Amino acid sequence: MKTSKLNIGILSLFLVVGLVFTNCQGDDEVNTFANDPISVEDAQVVADADDVSEGVSDLVEQLYIEDGLIGSRVEFSSFMPNHCGKRSIKWSTNQTMKVVTIDFGDGCELPNGNFVKGKIIIEFNANRELLMHSIKVSYDNFYYNHKKIEGTTTIERKLANDNGNPQSTVTVAIKITFPDGLYVERSSVKVREMIEGKDTIGVWGDNVFLITGNWTTVFRNGNVHKGEVIIPLRREMACRFLVSGSIKIQKGDRIGTLDFGNGDCDNKATFTNENGEVKEILLGKR
Questions:
Q1: Which domain holds residue 214?
Q2: CB 86 within 8 A of CB 77
Q3: What is the mean pLDDT of residues 213-228?
Q4: At 119, which helix (H) or strand (E)?
Q5: 25-64 residue pLDDT tens
Q6: Angle at 134 between CA 150 and CA 218, to 5 degrees
Q7: Structural domain tally of the chain?
Q8: Which of 5, 116, 174, 255 sits CB 3.0–4.6 Å from 151 for a disulfide?
Q9: Is residue 154 in a domain?
């Protein structure tokens, strides 16, 4: 009887150790516990996810604008150099919907320094006189700065908002996989207002956007980070990175602030945790 109880005790111990070991193996990303403070590593991933998400939105918007300029009398400088990207078109049966596929092949560098690879597919109504356009975006083995993008993006684009500026409401449901295998799932609704560049439609380099909205980022280990723009993010097409603006990050009851700078075109951001400690983050290093 004693031997039986001893065996049961040993078996129970192995089961407990096995469960702990399995859990540790499965949660190999930052922050194993959902209520841990937001770490600098977490903030680094979130910052890079924001930078990628906005960079892809830049690319889609510019590809859409250029499609409307092709064949017109407006001279324009393309965001796709001759060596970067092959364009193909398919039409719906009634010739109203247009599907544009840009194939970047094995990869090339855009004029603002970002690297793209694979295919991006954009579908929209070809009638350019509409005041509102719905643009559907999908990705086929597409990489942005060596991070794989999967999922869908939908853009509701107004020709003019109350300020007279082009404005897009961007709804994102994507998965971003980093080169080391870590991935996050990002869902967001953001508003992008073009505050500069609308009067020089053939020039992409002077386009500037202000971005507001919120998002949710889910890490592979299940940790959920919510974000809200508290100071509008500034995106300049000529720069590879977000140049200013702030986001509040929240994980459970833990909070922090991610700041993208004062307008300089650099890869620096700062993260302030709930204790007021400030750490520098280098964008694109994840």
A1: 37-282
A2: no
A3: 94
A4: strand 115-125
A5: 444 444 445 567 899 999 999 999 998 999 999 999 999 9
A6: 30
A7: 1
A8: 174
A9: yes
